[in-house]
Amino acid sequence: MALLIPTGHLSLEICPQPDRANIPPRSPQACSGVAALSLKQPTVVVGRLGGSATLLCTASESVSYIHWYLHQEGSAPRRILMLDMSKSYVQRDGGFSADKITAKKGKESNSCELLVRKLEKRAEGAYYCAAWELTAMLFGPGTLLRATDKNPDEDISPKPTIFLPSIAEVKLHKAGTYVCLLENIFPDVIKIDWKEKNGKTVLESLQGNTMKTKDAYMKYTWLTVQQESMDREHKCIVKRETNKKSVEQEIFFPSINKKDAHVAELNVPSPACEPVTLAGETNQWLLLDLLHLQLMNTSAYYTYVLLLVKSVVYTIIITIGLLGRGALCDNEKSS
After folding, report:
1. pLDDT 10s digits, 6-42
2. In sequence order, what are the residues at sequence separation of 6 or more whose Cβ sits closer than 8 angstroms to the Cβ of residue 129?
3. pLDDT attached to residue 269
4. Which CATH architecture has domain 159-279?
5. 293: three-class secondary structure by DSSP
6. CATH code given to domain 2-148
7. H-type helices in the chain, by residue range?
8. What letter would DSSP give residue 203?
9. Percent helix / strand / coil, the chain, rounded to 5
10. The whole model's pTM is what?
């Protein structure tokens, strides 16, 4: 069963292994077999720094043990503890002390609660519950834990800034690009779709990487509209998860051929969400520069790695040459 980390993080496949305590990740092979057991987990839990957070796991049928795994960005998933459901005994694998993380049976007979106390930023990550059914270990969908110094139950809508197509782009390419910049995202569990205003079909669009800001996240997405669709209005749909519910926010874009007539309408604040900021062509090119900068940073990273590898190889070759030269000189002196 796949471990799907939210907001574009690493996706791993975990399959059953003989050593049940430490199961190494495999990707992208799928585990074979169909199981009746299923595990449910909330998508995200937000807790206050220094406080506590409870992560729930509910099994569809009775299980003897529930295992908890933690997956943090940049490292492989690791088991942190196992709960004996019949004896309420917790076996820990290290990394967290009993006063920081523990587990207990939930209110329902087949449920388990993972308690994270004295919440710190280093405890953030994706937590997966798992249970064995015959010879297969089955995993839940995972819960993303985030810590904040604000009220964790406060519903904060992302602040959208929209960028309309430039006249030059429309004339040159016979197409226009809508760009939506989303700021003040927290937690970073969102799904973005584009549709025509009154349409049901999800349109093909692109998204940039989720970027960390001071105490939240930002993300941008864009949709290219071809000439035959320029008379139609479009919308960007942002679905996000909070502690209590799923929230959907719609951001409307005027038709490209009539965009000037709708500018005033876009600046009217909606009581249900953050006001929409309309950016001009100058700011649009600044955002496109941001996209180019991200691509350049990625290319620069891989170029640096390649140069580093070449440097190591050259150092080894020169060292071998110098050692060989010294040995040759010693042989000449002895002869």
Report:
1. 433 333 344 433 343 343 333 333 344 455 899 999 9
2. 39, 41, 57, 66, 67, 68, 69, 112, 114, 139, 140
3. 38
4. Sandwich (2.60)
5. helix
6. 2.60.40.10
7. 167-173, 263-266, 281-334
8. B
9. 25, 40, 40
10. 0.67
